[in-house]
Amino acid sequence: AILREMLAGASRFTVIRDAIPDISDRMLSERLKELEAAGIVARQVHAETPVRVEYLLTEKGRALDKVIAAIGEWADAWLEPPGTARNDPAA
Asked: What does the domain layout of the chain look like in residue ranges?
């Protein structure tokens, strides 16, 4: 979900967080650090007041575009939204 949002243009922590339901600040921070360590995301700090931090996809991260799109297409074709009879364990 993080990469999907970043591929769609999100780069600020709060924008990414607000686009992903139920992700905590801590979880997003941990995942961004892992993506940075893997060379998929670069953290850019702008020396402004207040300090502005952006997370940008590296070339390696942008190369995942087609993979993420293919997974999304598969999910659209094969998965039903949460709460529907097929995905509802109570049904």
From this structure: 2-78
**Taking Cα atoms as reference points, which of 38, 32, 87 lies closest to residue 63?**
38
The rounded distance, in Å, linking the Cα atoms of 49 and 76 is: 43
> What's the confidence (pLDDT) of residue 83?
72
DSSP code string of 28-52: HHHHHHHHHHTTSEEEEEE--SS-E
Whole-number Å distance between alpha carbons of 39 and 47: 23
Q: Which residue has the tokens 């293919």?
A: 70
Does residue 88 have a pLDDT over 90?
Answer: no
**Identity of the amino acid at 14:** T
Query: Residue 14 contacts by C-beta under 8 Å, 6 or more apart in sequence?
Result: none
CATH number of 2-78: 1.10.10.10
Measured CA to CA, the distance from residue 37 to residue 22 in angstroms comes to 24
Query: pTM of whole model > 0.70?
Result: yes
